[in-house]
DNA sequence: TCTTATGATTTCAT
DNA sequence: ATGAAATCATAAGA
C-alpha cells in the first residue's frame, strides 16, 4: 500500500492526464520552493512520463497475462473435469493462487518503478543544486535595485515578481539573492564600496533628473526653492550645497507630498554618490565618509527609514542622516 | 590547485 | 511566513 501511495503521489499511477504536472508539483513542493527551472523541469517531467508509460504498459501486460493464464487454467480444469470431478472450490483456489502470483509480480513492478522515480528525483534535485551563475544582465538589474534601495533593500512581493520577470529567474531566486546580498553587504561593506559606487553612479543621472523633475513639480508649493539650476549633467560638485539639498529633501524640512516615498530610492543613490565623491580622498579606509547610515546600531536594516518616516513631520534626533554630520 | 564569488539550503528567531 | 546567519556546493579566476 505504501508503494501505491507513493506512486500515486508521484503521479505515476494517478489519473492519465495530470500525472506529469502533479509529479512536478510534488517535486517542487518537496524541494521547498517554486522551481520552474524550465529546462531541468521539463527534462524531469519527460523522464517521469517515460517511467509512467513503462509502468502502465507493464501493468497492462501483466494483467493481460494474468487473465490469459487464468482462462488457460480454467480450460485445463474443464478438460480435466471430464475425467475427474472438480469442485468449484478447487477452481476458486487455483484462481486465487494465480492472482496472488501475479499480484506479487505487480508488486515487484511497483517497487522497481518507485526506485526509478526516486533515482530520477534525486538526480533532479542534484541538478537543481548545481549552481549556475545568473546572467550578467540579471545581476546588473538586481544590483541596481539593491543599491538604489540601500536604505531599505527589501523588495515587496510585487517588486520581487517584477525583478524576477526582468531577470528571467524565479521569485524565490530573487529572494535568495537579496538575502545573500544583504547579509554579505552588511558583513563587509568595504568590499562592496566599489560596486556600490558603480551602481550608484550608474543611476545617478536618472535619479538626478527624476529628482529635479519632482522638485520642479513641487516648486510652486515649496517655500524654499532648492537651487535646481544645475539640473543638467549632475557634475558632482564638492559635496556641499547639493548634499545639503539632498539632506533636506530626505529629511524633515522638505516633505513634498508627491515626492516622498517615490523619490526615496533616488535619494539613496544620489546621497551615496555624493558621499562617495566627497570622501574620496581617503576612501576605503576604516571610517570612510560613507558609512552605512541605513544600518541601525545592531547592524540591522529593519528600523531603517521607511517611507512613513519620510512623511512624518518630525523626526527624532537620531534620524537617518545623523551620522553624516562630520 | 587554491581562493574567492555566488547561488542554494538549513537553521533559528520573530 | 519572512529574514538573518551559517553553511554547503559549485563556478570562476588566479
TrEMBL record:
Alphabetically ordered keywords of this record: Activator, DNA-binding, Homeobox, Nucleus, Transcription, Transcription regulation
PROSITE patterns: HOMEOBOX_1, HOMEOBOX_2, PBC
Domain of life: Eukaryota
Molecular function terms, GO-annotated: DNA binding; DNA-binding transcription factor activity, RNA polymerase II-specific
Region (Disordered): 217-249, 295-326
Keyword Transcription regulation attributed: yes
Domain Homeobox: 125-188
Record field: compositional bias (Low complexity): 217-233
A Gene Ontology biological process term: animal organ development
DNA-binding residues (ranges): 127-189
Subcellular location: Nucleus
SMART domains according to UniProt: HOX
Polar residues bias locations: 306-326
Ranges for domain PBC: 1-126
Cellular component GO terms, alphabetical: nucleus
Stated family: Belongs to the TALE/PBX homeobox family.
Record function comment: Transcriptional activator that binds the sequence 5'-ATCAATCAA-3'.
Name the record gives this protein: Pre-B-cell leukemia transcription factor 2
Organism (species): Hymenochirus boettgeri
Amino acid at each position: 500500500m505504501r508503494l501505491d501511495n507513493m506512486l500515486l503521489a508521484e503521479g505515476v499511477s494517478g489519473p492519465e492526464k495530470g500525472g506529469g504536472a502533479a509529479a512536478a508539483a510534488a517535486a517542487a513542493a518537496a524541494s521547498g520552493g517554486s522551481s520552474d527551472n524550465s529546462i531541468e523541469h521539463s527534462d524531469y517531467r519527460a523522464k517521469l512520463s517515460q517511467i509512467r508509460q513503462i509502468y502502465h504498459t507493464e501493468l497492462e501486460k501483466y494483467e493481460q497475462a494474468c487473465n490469459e493464464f487464468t482462462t488457460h487454467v480454467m480450460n485445463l480444469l474443464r478438460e480435466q473435469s471430464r475425467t475427474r470431478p472438480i469442485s468449484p472450490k478447487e477452481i476458486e483456489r487455483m484462481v486465487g493462487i494465480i492472482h496472488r502470483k501475479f499480484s506479487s509480480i505487480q508488486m515487484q513492478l511497483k517497487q522497481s518503478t518507485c526506485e526509478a522515480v526516486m533515482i530520477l528525483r534525486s538526480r533532479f534535485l542534484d541538478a537543481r543544486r548545481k549552481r549556475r551563475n545568473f546572467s550578467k544582465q540579471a545581476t546588473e538589474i538586481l544590483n541596481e535595485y539593491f543599491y538604489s534601495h540601500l536604505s531599505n533593500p527589501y523588495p515587496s512581493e510585487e517588486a520581487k515578481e517584477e525583478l524576477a520577470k526582468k531577470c528571467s529567474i524565479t521569485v524565490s531566486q530573487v529572494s535568495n539573492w537579496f538575502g545573500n546580498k544583504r547579509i554579505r553587504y552588511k558583513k563587509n561593506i568595504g568590499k562592496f564600496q566599489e560596486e556600490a559606487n558603480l551602481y550608484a553612479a550608474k543611476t545617478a543621472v536618472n535619479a538626478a533628473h527624476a529628482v529635479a523633475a519632482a522638485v520642479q513639480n513641487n516648486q510652486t508649493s515649496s517655500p524654499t526653492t532648492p537651487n535646481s539650476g544645475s539640473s543638467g549633467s549632475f557634475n558632482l560638485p564638492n559635496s556641499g550645497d547639493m548634499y545639503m539639498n539632498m539632506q533636506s529633501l530626505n529629511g524633515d524640512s522638505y516633505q513634498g507630498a508627491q515626492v516622498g516615498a517615490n523619490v526615496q530610492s533616488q535619494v539613496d543613490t544620489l546621497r551615496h554618490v555624493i558621499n562617495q565623491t566627497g570622501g574620496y580622498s581617503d576612501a576605503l579606509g576604516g571610517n570612510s565618509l560613507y558609512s552605512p547610515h541605513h544600518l541601525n546600531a545592531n547592524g540591522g536594516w529593519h528600523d531603517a527609514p521607511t517611507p512613513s518616516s519620510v512623511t512624518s513631520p518630525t523626526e527624532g534626533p537620531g534620524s537617518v542622516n545623523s551620522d553624516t554630520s562630520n
